[in-house]
Amino acid sequence: MSHTQKKSLLRYLLPAIALGVFAFLMVAYGSAYTPPKAQKQRIVCYKFKQGTSAEAIKKHLDGFQNLKRELPEIVNYSAGNTISESGTTAEYDVMHYLTFRTDEEMEKFRQSAEYQAFEKANKDSWERVLVINSEIK
Predict the structure, then answer these.
(1) Boundaries of domain holding 88
(2) One domain, residues 51 and 2
(3) Residues 83 and 60 in one domain
(4) Which one, of 37, 32, 52, lies nearest residue 126 by Cα?
(5) Whole-prediction pTM value?
(6) How many domains does the chain have?
(7) Cα 77–Cα 83–Cα 84 angle in degrees, nearest 5
(8) What tens digit of pLDDT does each residue of 16-59 get?
């Protein structure tokens, strides 16, 4: 094989080799740095005191929703008013569903200054609170 033929062959193989190395690095990066899937769920139910204003309830809902924007530990969040099956008054008024990756992230959320401030600002309007933690399978 002449020198010119070797140069020509190298010109065709170099991009293929570079593409192969790039693809390998992307696969290695993807498997090494893929964040863990969400595995923990926290459900928080609130019963408001009799006579709590609609404005105070809206403040509560907005404040909790803002926690999702402020705290990266929360992977997913949704909330809603509770309903009863038998037409009677529901035991709790509002439920918040939070999803986390690990127990440590759930605890970090619980200890965060933002969550502590939310509790302090709203606790006077709550009659009772129920917290349920679970694992997502």
Answers:
(1) 40-135
(2) no
(3) yes
(4) 52
(5) 0.70
(6) 2
(7) 140
(8) 888 888 888 888 777 766 666 768 999 999 999 999 999 999 99
